[in-house]
Design goal:
51% of the residues lie in helices and 0% in strands. It is built from 22 helices and no strands. The chain is mainly α.
Length: 318
């Protein structure tokens, strides 16, 4: 016995080589599981049902719970210790405890491979559990219950961590200004153009502050703001500063606005494709445009292309 005790203190797995009598000796097994929790698998059946032994085993290695007797797999104290050590232990708990709030919360607190998507559906609307999950992974917002996806605190926490999680919020919170602005300021990657209207609510796409924050990500997002804001000079100027292509989505009057057109042209000569007819027939504007990009001459109205002063400037900046 003394030899085996020394061996398991050094390496708990040595218990597998002990005789049956020592595999049923509590003193020996306790020393073994304190060293290596999984050693519980080699203990005698009586000790697999001994709470003191099993507690020591799961404190050392949570998934040792799989080797405990059925009664202890349904013992809350034992299961809590197991999942605190390793969240993977949850799958070895008794059915009743797999749906227990305290056990699930402890699992999420020590998240490894267990995610809220694996949690009992009835528990996904528990706010404390949802908060724990999204604090570890903002995209867990996609797995919490609908009530939590409509909870301002929960969603705000998620988008503060990663703005792209906004896509999982309720329709109501996709129209909540504080939440949407926070999300746009905390994007981990750009929003796909095909997803803009699904992620940002219609009301927010008519909010100037939101629109300005959105187009700061990409001027071409101007396409998705309201008609009213596509005709707002401040908004459109910010968009075309970012991308000349944004001129395509400006309102009629702003496509014919000198400041807007020239700002867009400085950003990208593709703006010439979307300039209004009136601005392309404005001599002062075209002369300035040619100095920015000689190719602007080719987009000028027929009248201005025949103008001698315009021709001279075009040749100079060709």
């Amino acid at each position: 016995k003394e030899v085996v005790l020394e061996a398991v203190k050094c390496n708990g797995m040595a218990l597998q080589y002990a005789g049956d009598e020592l595999k049923n000796d509590k003193e020996v097994v306790l020393e073994a599981v304190k060293n290596t929790g999984w050693t519980l698998q080699y203990a005698g059946d009586e000790l697999k049902n001994d709470k003191e032994v099993v507690l020591e085993a799961v404190k050392c290695g949570g998934t040792a719970l799989q080797y405990a007797g059925d009664e202890l797999k349904n013992d809350k104290e034992v299961v809590l210790e197991a999942v605190k050590c390793d969240s993977n232990a949850l799958e070895f708990a008794g059915d009743r405890l797999q749906g227990d709030y305290d056990v699930i919360l402890a699992s999420v607190n020590h998240l490894k491979t267990v995610t809220i998507s694996e949690v009992n559906k009835a528990m996904r609307d528990v706010k404390a559990l949802a908060m724990e999950a999204i604090q570890q992974d903002a995209f867990a917002l996609g797995c919490v219950g609908k009530k939590m996806q409509d909870d301002e605190d929960v969603v705000y926490t998620a988008v503060t961590s990663n703005g792209n999680a906004l896509g999982y919020a309720s329709t109501g919170l996709k129209n909540h200004k504080k939440i949407v602005l926070t999300a746009l300021k905390n994007l981990s990657y750009g929003i796909d153009y095909s997803e803009i209207e699904d992620i940002i609510g219609e009301k927010m796409r008519d909010d100037k502050d939101v629109a300005l924050q959105l187009i700061s990500q990409s001027g071409e997002y101007l396409e998705f703001v309201s008609d009213r804001l596509q005709n707002d000079k401040e908004v459109v100027l910010e968009a075309v500063k970012n991308s000349g292509l944004a001129l395509k989505y400006a309102g009629y009057d702003l496509k014919n606005d000198r400041d807007v057109f020239l700002t867009a042209l400085k950003a990208d000569n593709v703006a010439l494709e979307f300039a209004g007819e009136k601005i392309l027939d404005d001599k002062e504007t075209i002369l300035k445009a040619i100095k920015i990009d000689g190719g602007a001459y080719n987009y000028a109205s027929d009248r201005l292309q025949e103008d001698s002063n315009v021709k001279i400037v075009a040749i100079m900046y060709k």
